[in-house]
Amino acid sequence: MLSFLAPEHLISTFGLLGILAVVFAESGLLIGFFLPGDSLLFTTGLLVAEGTYLHQPLWLVCLLVAVAAVAGDQFGYLFGRKFGPALFRRPDSRLFKQENLTRAHEFLATYGARSIILARFVPVVRTFTPIVAGAGRMDYRTFLVCNVIGGVLWGGGVTLLGHQLGQIAVVKDHIELMLIAVVAVSVIPVAIEVLRARQQNRPRHVA
Predict the structure, then answer these.
(1) pTM for the complete prediction?
(2) Which DSSP state fits 155?
(3) Which of 151, 159, 187, 205 fits as disulfide partner to 45, beta carbons 3.0 to 4.6 Å?
(4) How many separate domains does the chain show?
(5) How many Å is the Cα radius of gyration of the chain?
(6) Distances (CA, A) of 201 to 77, 104, 115, 117, 196
């Protein structure tokens, strides 16, 4: 990870406003896919526990992060609804790859409305899924409900996890390994859904 995108550097430089801006951008802006998400939220919770850089109460930080996450997805949905068809015809560039849209489209096609929640825990996919949902004209109420649930579970949940584990000495002494573990654990909900889908699609042999 580039040093200026390291979670602690972002937090020490820009504070809570920087965290909210990153969460918003990574949740629904095309250029936000490369920003740290899970590791940033985990580090946020850890630093709130330590009282380092962040001195706001935990409940307020979790609330604001969840709001920023929901707002980012809302923007992505509206952006996709208006410009989505043109995006699928846009050529690749340094910051834009058609394969990212394709991955999000396949994710949405596989899991339907649940993908809005599950995508929160998958880097890159979480950035493009609301855009694809908007381009595909997903029912707005369905999207909104799933967006709020996903934003709260991811934004508030990962931050809270960092806060709780951040009070354990071994976690603070091995923060790099913990950040890797958080990213790995965050894909568990998707892995469960993949296994469940394969189980349901497996042909049944009739005796």
Answers:
(1) 0.79
(2) I
(3) 159
(4) 1
(5) 18
(6) 30, 21, 18, 22, 9
CA distance 54 to 129: 31
Closest CA to 131 of 87, 70, 99, 92: 87
CA 84 to the chain's CA centroid:
20
Calculate the CA dihedral of residues 81, 122, 111, 101 and round it to 10 degrees. 40
Residue 140: C-alpha distances to residues 3, 14, 107 (Å): 38, 33, 18
Range of the domain at 57: 3-201
| Ordered DSSP codes for 1-68 | --GGGSHHHHHHHHHHHHHHHHHHHHHH-GGGTTS--HHHHHHHHHHHHHTSS--S-HHHHHHHHHHH
pLDDT at 206: 44
The distance of Cα 105 from the centroid of its chain, to the nearest Å, equals 16
In a domain, residue 67? The reply is yes
Residue with tokens 């005796």: 207
User: Is 207 inside a domain boundary?
Assistant: no
Would 10 be classed as within a structural domain? yes
Return per-residue pLDDT of the chain as tens, 207 residues: 456 778 888 899 999 999 999 999 999 887 777 888 888 998 999 899 888 899 999 999 999 999 999 999 999 999 988 887 777 677 766 656 777 778 788 878 887 888 899 889 888 888 888 988 988 888 999 999 999 999 999 999 999 988 988 777 766 666 666 666 666 665 665 566 556 656 665 655 444
Residue 30 CA to residue 28 CA, distance in Å, equals: 7
